[in-house]
Design brief:
This protein is α/β, with parallel strands linked by helices. The chain contains 13 helices and 12 strands. The protein has an 8-stranded parallel barrel, surrounded by 7 helices. Strands 5-6 form a two-stranded antiparallel ribbon. Helix 5 packs parallel to helix 6, helix 9 crosses helix 10 and helix 12 crosses helix 13. It is globular, with a radius of gyration of 20 Å.
Length: about 350
């Protein structure tokens, strides 16, 4: 079981920070290591600190944490990404993982001259992943097509630890799942409630021959008292008019994830009775505009049981939609519960 959090924001339109980004990043990374987690997602967009600079800094202030670095083909060719991974491995003796993303924000893509359509971006991502995987494995790569051209190119230097780098592919559209089947070590989804996720993601991928690992991206707010967990969630992510309007706009998004989550978030009751414990699956943080994924909220037992359904189905990687250091112990307690729910039918053993 591998748990990843995410780097703190370098800037925010929602809050002002009392400390500089480096101080917050250093404290967050130390907290993730103390919690025993595997790594940290380093996002890529045009309004955040460059992810490669952040990853290099993380290597200098941690002992074993692995960056899961987001890479967009429009911003970095695959041979450069492989060379950066080689440099990181040379400096720190560790691999890093790649989160391959086609690009979701149309405004950013257009402003930097990336005019490809949705499915064309995934066709490019497929070639990108194939080239990157070959270089990391030490292969001599030849490729000629509309996106990249390589003639007997090999990565040098290439530390052997690069063989442990994993390629994550995020998405839920048919185009993204085709890419995942071909090049992903781990396919990542923002899951619907388990029965729908099993029907719409797990079963189609397995039926189509996918043999890699599965991962999900969720937020977790768990407490001994479920009402306390819900109070924390609502205080942390209060409903806003602006957030709801942006969510309505996302129901028209070309991005499959955003559109599906936004449609569900609009339909979800925004302000249930505070004296009752709602269903743990919650899109209030998404509807607030502060998260790109659903949250599981409630008691350690309730959240753990929901997580356990995904783990029992084969999910081995969980990307948290951020975390407060005060949440780490409670998150780990929820995962302890989840592991007790991971007995797979016919196997008679737990997925540790």
């Amino acid at each position: 079981m591998h748990i990843y959090s995410v780097t703190p924001e370098s800037m925010s339109s929602f809050e002002e920070f009392d400390e500089d980004f480096r101080t917050r990043l250093t404290r967050a990374a130390a907290g993730y290591e103390r919690a025993g987690w595997s790594g940290v997602l380093v996002p890529h967009n045009l309004h955040e600190v460059d992810p490669w600079v952040v990853a290099a800094y993380l290597g200098s202030v941690t002992d074993r944490l692995l960056p899961l670095i987001a890479v967009q083909p429009s911003s970095l060719p695959p041979h450069t990404a492989a060379a950066m991974a080689s440099a990181y491995a040379t400096l720190y003796g560790r691999p890093l993982h790649f989160n391959l993303v086609a690009g979701a924000r149309e405004d950013e893509l257009r402003s930097t001259g990336d005019l490809l359509g949705h499915d064309e971006r995934y066709e490019r991502l497929l070639v990108y992943g194939r080239v990157l995987r070959g270089l990391l494995a030490g292969e001599e790569v030849s490729e000629e097509g509309p996106h990249y051209r390589y003639e007997r190119f090999r990565l040098e230097p290439r530390p052997e630890v690069l063989a442990r780098c994993l390629l994550f592919v995020a998405g839920s559209s048919p185009a993204s799942l085709r890419v995942a089947k071909e090049v992903a070590d781990v396919v990542i989804t923002h899951p619907a409630p388990y029965p729908e996720w099993e029907r719409d993601v797990l079963e189609p991928l397995l039926a189509d021959g996918y043999r890699g690992a599965f991962g999900i991206r969720v937020g977790v707010i768990a407490r001994s008292d479920p009402l306390e967990a819900w109070r924390t969630a609502r205080d942390r992510f209060p409903e806003t008019w602006r957030g709801r309007q942006e969510t309505l706009l996302k129901t028209l998004s070309q991005n499959n994830w955003s559109r599906q989550l936004a449609t569900r978030a609009v339909a979800e009751e925004s302000a249930p009775d505070a004296s009752k414990v709602p269903d743990p699956y919650w899109l209030g943080a998404f509807r607030n505009g502060r998260a790109s994924a659903p949250f599981l909220v409630g008691s350690h037992e309730d959240v753990g049981a929901r997580l356990g359904a995904y783990l029992a189905a084969g999910v081995e990687h969980v990307l948290l939609n951020g975390s407060y250091e005060t949440d780490h112990e409670d998150i780990n307690r929820a995962f302890e519960v989840a592991r007790r729910h991971t007995v797979r039918p016919g196997r008679g053993e737990e997925n540790e």
